[in-house]
């Protein structure tokens, strides 16, 4: 597990920087994390619920 280490493999590859998945990644707000991880870190970054 590579926590908070955003690995960029080429252009256009948007991956969750927490779990590495490329599905449902939120690119807005400069988050770049998937919705699943977002729900976990949202309280930490003082963010409201998504969706
Ligand atoms: Zn994730």
Average pLDDT works out at: 76
Total strands: the figure is 2
- Our Rg estimate from Cα atoms comes to 11 Å
Supply the helix-strand structural class: little secondary structure
Biggest sheet details: 2 strands, antiparallel
Number of alpha- plus pi-helical segments: 1
General description of the model:
The structure is a single chain. The protein has 1 helix and 2 strands. By secondary structure, the chain is low in regular secondary structure. It has a single domain (1-51), classed as 30s Ribosomal Protein S14, Chain N. The protein has a two-stranded antiparallel sheet. The radius of gyration is 11 Å and the shape is globular. The chain binds zinc ion. Zinc ion binds next to strand 2 and helix 1.
Quick recap:
By secondary structure, the chain is largely without helices or strands. The protein is built from 1 helix and 2 strands. Zinc ion (ZN) binds next to strand 2 and helix 1.
Q: Secondary structure elements and their pairing?
A:
Layout: E1 25-26, E2 33-34, H1 35-41
Antiparallel strand pairs: 1-2
The chain binds zinc ion (ZN).
Zinc ion binds at residues 16, 18-19, 21, 33-34, 36-37.
């Amino acid at each position: 597990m590579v926590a908070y280490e955003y690995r960029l493999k080429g252009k256009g590859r948007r991956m969750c920087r927490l779990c590495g998945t490329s599905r449902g990644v939120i690119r807005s707000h400069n988050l770049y994390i998937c919705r699943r991880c977002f729900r976990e870190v949202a309280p930490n970054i003082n963010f409201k619920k998504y969706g």
